[in-house]
Amino acid sequence: MAQHATGPRVGRRRSAVAAVTAATALSLLTASGSAQGRTEHQAEDATVSGGVVASAHGGFTGSGYVDYADAAGGYVEYEVTAARSGTHTLVFRYANATGADLPVDLTVDGRRAGAVGFPATGAWTTWRDVTAAVALEAGVNRVRATAATDRGGPDTDRLLVDDTDVEPPTPPRRLRATGTSDTTVSLAWEPATDDVGVVGYDVYQHGQLMTSVPGTESAATVTGLRPDTAYDWTVLARDAASNVSRAGNNVVVRTDASPADDEAPTAPANPRVVDWSATSVSLAWDASTDDMGVTGYEVHRAGAPVVTTDGTSTAITGLTAGTGYRFAVRARDAAGNVSAFSDEVHAVPEDKATAGAPRPGEVTTLREGTDVPWGLAFLPDGSALVSERERFTLYRLAPDGTWTALGRVPGAQATNGEGGVLGVAVSPLFAYDNTVFIYHTAAAGNQVVRVRLVGDMLTGWHTILGGIPKNRYHNGGGLQFSPDGGYLFVSTGDAQNGSYGQNLDTNAGKILRIHPDGSIPEDNPFPGKAIWSYGHRNVQGMAFDSQGRLWATEFGNNSLDEVNLIQRGGNYGWPGCEGTAGYCEGSIPPKTMWPTSAGGPSGLAIVDDHLFIGTTVGQRLYRLRIDGSDLVEQEVFFQGRYGRLRTLRLDREGDLWLTTTWDLDEEVGNDRVLHVDLVYPGS
């Protein structure tokens, strides 16, 4: 019964079925195609029922493939010998030219193990891989793949069984504080469990890795903290295969107040001008020292403070071109002691920027009282779609401030951190298809969904990309269409598992490129994968310049934040490389960087080849000009004026819309959407 020898089966299969539901215990990731460390099982050598061994279509491995009958219930059963008990990865190689998904049910020794879908591959000679994670017992297991619908299953070439441990540890439980001082917090937790063994624990403070301890320990002390400051702690477990657990419970702990301290820090040394523009100068200096620790610096002009900062550099804006200014810096500690002033530094702002460079003008509040407005995208009528991260709701915001609730995103979940309803994109063909795209966190991970907006009603929800690993922090969330509208770019985080950045078998820690229907473009750099670039920690903002090049902002850990010019197939270094520090061989360096205390880059918009970047930690708006492949002439706006700057989008009138959040995104209903006029001095 060589069913495919006389022609394709297109048209004989009637309807598509969802590949995997949220109830299945499978991870649908595109496989690497590498058989290293895997055992191979040819389908033609397995037990076949309701199908035949065929060889009509080329490109298969072994001596043939199994052609399922056009009926439910046909199966291929493999005899798999496992060296250990635990979760294993099954990699199925298949072809499917029906144009519809052909799902199968999986059982192991008669026990249901979930379901896996086999999406269309375009031709019977085009072979693809899908993977499923299932539990096997040590010894012989009978793995059966049974056609779930009356359209049968796909052409099945082989099964690869990967014995590598893919099961993450359980989350550490009962995290608690066991002690504090003015600069330390001691924590303890109940040990995690793992099918192979826990090798380490990572201690995070609001998404930043602070310290790690071996898996034999269940306590840690973090040093170098600020006195009388609240810190938000989470602990994650790791196993030897670099699987990372979900976050356990979090605990907020305040350090003690400083003991009596009457010793001032040393004076900052070597103050210097490192950059300037017509209306700003950027200064840097060498760090002060203090017996209890320096907590910040004050920059003074004419005897009055103008800027305070945590780091050893800052920008002073609002100056007059050609006017001389003298600045001095002093340090302070937690007890309020201040150092002597540094030597004075003389600066004269000068106009070295391109004439007519856009800059912020009048700022108008369009909406206040929102709750972490994250996604922002414009409709053809000039109104914007705005998502609230943890209320899971999508709104329409008109330029006159009219605010209309459109509905909640089904299945959206929070993570008590950076998860929820995140990026929003409007189809370039919205006038014809009324389609909106949303990135959100769900039970099975982060995902991209597609929905139609008809009037004020959302209808026809459909997941086009799922299975993106999630965690409390580092969920990414950006969506950006290519200039031609043919591709949707998706930015993801590493789900607090640094090894994901370099792992091409997961969509975490990546920038992805898909078609608007969720299919994978054939010219992506890694065949069969959505991955466009990798080695990322947590990318949120993306935008294209006038040459059609993609730029992206990236959160660093404890050292440097980045802006990157994205290349097809490029490796951006994480976790070995942060900024330009660490092991960076073979990775693409950033185009600009900031200390994490002055960054937290989230929103990105490009106007006349000028990058505008909103920062959360730095609470400022950066502007940089694209000069070839470099970024030059940095200017700073709004420093500390509007709190944490989250999302930036360019509206149809050529102005910026900007969302803000306050107090580490925790004070509900205290956030805003702003309209920022862009003006062009000298034009």
Descriptive report:
This protein has 683 residues and is mainly beta. It folds into 4 domains: 38-162, Galactose-binding domain-like (Jelly Rolls, Sandwich), CATH 2.60.120.260; 173-254, Immunoglobulins (Immunoglobulin-like), CATH 2.60.40; 269-347, Immunoglobulins (Immunoglobulin-like, Sandwich); 359-679, Neuraminidase, CATH 2.120.10.30. It is 1% helix and 48% strand. The chain is built from 1 helix and 51 strands. The longest helix has 4 residues, at 430-433. The model is unreliable at 1-37 (pLDDT under 50).
Output the CATH topology of the largest domain: Neuraminidase
The Rg value, from CA coordinates, equals 27 Å
CATH-scheme architecture of the largest domain:
6 Propeller
The major beta sheet can be summarized as:
6 strands, antiparallel
What is the number of independent domains? 4
Give the CA-CA distance, first to last residue.
Answer: 75 Å
Mean pLDDT: 87
Low-confidence stretches: 1-37
By helix and strand content, what is the structural category?
A: mainly beta
Total strands: 51
Strand content: over 45%
Organism: Saccharothrix saharensis
Biased composition (Basic and acidic residues): 152-161
Signal peptide: 1-37
Protein name: Glucose/arabinose dehydrogenase
